Amino acid sequence: TRFLLTGGSGFLAAHVLDVLLERGHSVVTTVRSVQKAEAIKEAHPTFGKDRLDFAIVEDIAQPDAFDQAVISNPPFAAVIHTASPFHFNATDMKKDFLDPGNRSSTTRGEFWDSERVLTEYYLAIIGTTGILKAIQKNAPSVERVVITSSFLAMVDRSKNFGKIYSEADWNPITEAEAYDGQASGYRASKTFAERAAWDFVKQENPKFTLSVCNPPLVLGPIVHYLNSLSALNTSNQRIRDLMTGAAKVSCPPTMNYFFVDVRDIALAHVLVAEKSEAGGKRFFVVSGRFSNKEIAEIIGDAFPELKEKLPSGEALKPGDYPEEGTYDFDNSRSKSVLGLTYRSLRETIVDTVKSLQAVEAR
Ligand code: NDP
């Protein structure tokens, strides 16, 4: 099958690319620069242009960003859209994730209904609806679109111990709350972007079916050819900080207590694209619960030479589970529909540390 994969230089997308190639698919991946395309090409020397090719999309938040990228010969049958701004370094929430502009006369109803308001003001949403519009307009051969959303589009921060999360759950965050801080801006952007995608399908009834993957924190090995320890993807930074001693004085708080291995969520994206019964569904792809304290303990156990860099005793406490317990998860759909099996936290952490050590050694 011929796939368009967005953001091929990203932490997750790099693994999706490898799964697609391993399973015999042909892939065009979008990247922001020729240099990134070259780095990916060099790392996959056995694949010719017919199996691995590139399209430059510099900024997915431009409404017409994907109009050309979705056109291909032979034409695409499926699209996996993972690219999205993900970092907590935003200084200007409105510019980076949600751009409200002059919305003084906008009611909530108009916000969801009005294409004009969506297109003008919501960068993260544009990044999602923009590609759906481009496919509808220019790529009628596409049968399945898979979008990477997030557990953050499901979690209700007022519900903790006893709550079991599944595909039925939606984050109730409001626009006003989106501006509370950087983390809430990111949560809101993922929630609103996923809602906008489902709304698009409902309103436009396109030829393709939409599916969504909702991963919690994604941990796991990084591809060596695109990374340095200083510019590491956001979700693995806690492992780096534990390994390097940066978190020795105090283990960082865990925040959301679910993780998935990047290799498992990458495979899930491809299975969701391949299986007809996965159409029209969300998939909560979660390996298990974790705490930063457990990560520190696994690193200490598996890599004794790193022990002195790790927090211990009292310094581990901030990284522990809360005393009252945490919420739980139901990942049964990913097992029954996709047949997915999950790696353990130990396997994930050990392989991540090894990959970070390899990058450090370079
Ligand atoms: P990365 O930051 O590693 O990758 C993001 C990708 O999107 C990169 O290829 C990046 O390009 C590209 N990108 C970002 N902004 C733009 C833009 N404005 N125009 C064009 N390309 C852009 O993140 P992850 O791989 O971790 O995340 C992938 C997806 O998974 C995202 O949708 C994220 O929200 C979601 N997700 C991630 C989780 C995690 O813990 N990692 C958890 C839940 C969801 P470049 O490399 O050139 O900057």
From TrEMBL:
Oxidoreductase keyword on record: yes
GO molecular function annotations of the record: oxidoreductase activity, acting on the CH-OH group of donors, NAD or NADP as acceptor
Keyword Oxidoreductase: yes
Keywords: Oxidoreductase
Domain NAD-dependent epimerase/dehydratase: 4-87, 122-281
Family the entry assigns: Belongs to the NAD(P)-dependent epimerase/dehydratase family. Dihydroflavonol-4-reductase subfamily.
Record protein name field: Methylglyoxal reductase (NADPH-dependent) gre2
Organism of origin: Heterodermia speciosa
Gene: GRE2_3
